[in-house]
Description:
This protein is an alpha/beta fold. It contains 24 helices and 18 strands. The strands form three sheets. The protein has a six-stranded parallel beta sheet with strand order 2-1-3-4-6-5, with helices on both faces. Strands 9-8-7-10-11-12 form a six-stranded parallel beta sheet, sandwiched between helices. Strand 17 (500-504), helix 22 (510-519) and strand 18 (525-530) form a beta-alpha-beta unit. The protein is globular. The N and C termini lie far apart (72 Å). Bound molecules: thiamine diphosphate (TPP) and magnesium ion (MG). The site of magnesium ion (MG) has 8 residues, from helix 18.
Amino acid sequence: MARNVADLMWEMLQKAGVKRCYGIVGDALNPVIDALRRNGNVDFVHVRNEEYGVFAAVAEAYFTGNPVAVCGTAGPGVTHLFNGLMDARKEGAAVIAIAGDVESKLIDTAALEELNPYKFFDAAALYIGRVVNPEQARAVINTAVTTAVIDRGPTVISLPGDVAASKAPDGMHTVAIPAKAVFRPAEADLEKLARLINDAKTVAIFGGDGCRDARNEVLTLANKLKAPVGYSFRGKQWLEHDNPYATGMTGLIGYGGTYNAIHGADLLLLLGTDFPFSEFLPNGNVKKVQIDTNPKHLGRRTALDLGLVGDVQATVAALLPKIREKNDTTFLEKHLAQTREFDELLGHYVEKGPGIKPIRPEYLAATLSALASDDAMFFADTGTACIWMARHIKGGANRRLFGSFSWASMANAVPNAFGAQLAFPGRQTIALCGDGGFTMLALGDLPTLVQRKARVVHIILNNESLDFVNIEQQEAGFVPFGVNFKNPNFARVAEAMGAKGIRLEEPGDVKDALTEALAYKDGPVVVDAVVDPYALSLPSHVPFHAAEGYTLSLAKQVLAGRFDDVIKTIERNVRLV
Ligand SMILES: Cc1ncc(C[n+]2csc(CCOP(=O)(O)OP(=O)(O)O)c2C)c(N)n1
Ligand SMILES: [Mg+2]
């Protein structure tokens, strides 16, 4: 049988490091999947919803650095990929989507399941190629792979079934992916930066995901400048652990001394971060410098005194010899002390946890953190799980924390954990999920995990509400609406699906239940944890409008006859402070 375009594609993808393809087959993809079967080197992961597959691919690509394939077939199967591809774009994951396309003779005829890939994927993909002629295939596939890997984001190969099954052109088809380039600002700009730093009495650092490979350089810089180091959620896992300068996160889920440090310093260094919440960044008195590989990030969240295009690691390494050491530790000590005080406050939830029913999510998360292994990978659903992960899951040199931090989609955690489990078999992969998130996507694919005996630990925060939005609505001064629902017993549902199920209602059982879940080796385990739906988190800095909104909402709720809810909100949170 002559080698066809689909054979060529898998050969190229495999040589570029693709080990798995997540998706659902059908019509246009049948020749594609037949070629994958014959190739034998790419694991096809049949998921029950294409979107689930993309979230799995995002985590796999993000943590392995290898490109990962996903597939969906013409029209509806393709549209299911979209939310996950947006996530790949925002989180920076090399995901290559193989989109089944209608036969080439039907293109632009409004055929059944026809979808214009250029229009449809425009918002998500860094590159979209439609292969309408076998002669194009090599160039399109090459560009899709190279762009995904180097620009770290999703690309799309739209492939009509008839073209996939056509004879491939002969010749060499390897994809040559270069090693990471050394990318730093010009000498003159580095000198400017060094002058700003040397002239400043106090410096604060705020780092993001761009510090992933720059931990040593950033810590050396902090040491030399006696600078407190704050971080975004995406920067936390690279910068917080074993860092004597760490002062926590800022933003609505912030904690520690970072908010005050970045507002009180003479100079703020924003390193590899596109932190989107401008109201938590300083304006006015603080001088600001931003360093990022992406020029679009420079100055878009806050006005800058200096913006530099470059990789944080290479730039800081080149900067270090140019700056003078600072010896005054007063500024640093002040913000480290604030961080310790906030830590103590958070500790109250944990200490009192065993005696409080319903279970406090803070206690659940902190206990999980204490019991999990040193190389555990934690994934949080968008929702309150993010708050508890940010505050109570401790990082470490080999621990990993991930979520839909920049796209903020619900229902990411379990598929993320599945992708990580396939990439790192046997390692603890833990999904802290909302009950809204779990029922949105994870539940339907639980049989996939059972079938593969994938060791994903699901911890469901069963609060029978879209609690994050419940809190959001109150902060904005609304009476909560559309946020409550009823759940089945998820442990029993899980058991019925062939997974291990653990129902957790008693605070005194938290330790034992989590220990049992973490030790389970035969496949997925679902811990259905009934938690306090009234748990509130106070950020280290409360913006005035949030406090005002909350007061207004509580007043409206009293007027609407929901006095009981108001009392519970106050009583259950005040007793812990
Ligand atoms: C796909 C999607 N739909 C809606 C939202 C808006 N949203 C953000 S958090 C959230 C609530 C999540 O509820 P749940 O998963 O139960 O977590 P909880 O906050 O209750 O812990 C919603 C609706 C979103 N981010 N993504
Ligand atoms: Mg919920």
